[in-house]
Known about the structure:
By secondary structure, the protein is of the alpha+beta class. It has 4 helices and 22 strands. The protein folds into 4 domains: about 70 residues; about 110 residues, conserved putative lor/sdh protein from methanococcus maripaludis s2 fold (Beta Barrel), CATH 2.40.420.20; about 90 residues, Beta Barrel (Elongation Factor Tu (Ef-tu), domain 3), CATH 2.40.30; about 70 residues, CATH 2.40.50.100. A 6-stranded antiparallel barrel has the order 4-12-15-14-13-16.
Amino acid sequence: MNRKLxxxxxxxxxxxxxxxxxxxxxxxxxxxxAHDDHGHDEQKDHGHDDGHEHEDAHDETDGDDHGxxxxxxxxxxxxxxxxxxxxxxSHDDHGHGGGDDHGEHEEGKVEITPDAAKLTGIQVQQAxxxxxxxxxxxxxxxxxxxxxxxxVRARFPGFxxxxxxxxxxxxxxxxxxxxxxxxxxxxxxSVTAPIDGVILRRETNIGDVTDGKELFxxxxxxxxxxxxxxxxxxxxxxKKGQPVVVHTLDEKTSQNAQISMLFPTTxxxxxxxxxxxxxxxxxxxxxxxxxxxxxxxxxxxxxxIAVPRDALQFMEDQQVVFVKSGNTYExxxxxxxxxxxxxxxxxxxxxxxxxxxxxGSFVIKAxxxxxxxxxxx
Length: 377
């Protein structure tokens, strides 16, 4: 009985719950939709307001910030320009404000005080007429004068009994050099010096057989030969009797002479022609075997304006001389005519009486190039 009642009660509760379920579901759905609508409205309102406010804020920010940024950029630009200008001023000051005695530059010129010019070896002179002599350079050696050299032999074959001189001895004509015993007569005779000179070679000793061989070489060194090799291209310009300046390689020793002999044959190996200039040599400064040079005059001209060759310099692919005005030195382009050994003819660019740098021109050139490099930097 009790079990039956319990079952009826459970069944009744189930029916009640079944009837109540749609109402709960409907109510929950309505609440959910209401909540969704409310959220959507809030989102719409919030989004609209935010968008509007963001747009306003963007306008204000764009206006103000852009103006401020532009202003700051302008200030920075001004400061940058000012700093650049300062750097430029500093560079100019560095280029021009040396303030020393040597090397103030202005548009390719240089200013040098007289004291600084003297210290650096700068010399000046006035432009005027000068002799321009053309020469051909020669190279050669000092040799024995073959006309004053003697090769000494015994008159008869025999044995050398004694030798009376040594290598390097100075001998006089007729002086006894050696004693020889003749093979035929067994008589003893003397070999004597045929000329005054110096024993340059001794080719015999006691006990040697003479047998016609050379015993001594004697050379008179009071004169020697300057023996030059003339190249084919220069042969036509060189004649016997032409003056030549013979000098050592360091040019510390020189001697004026003349071409005394021009060989009629050509050297087979070098294809050169031999020219001889005889030199006096009483003091012995010209030693046979010494390498020498020579300058032979092949032409000359009295130029209206000529300068020393050392006065000319190349700048920007043209020859210039440096003209002096006060303490200022300026390069002057010139045209060069005949060029000699020492001087060069000036055909244009330099007037008679103008003061130019005759020595030390390389110092002026270096100063100007240094100033130009500083300006470019």
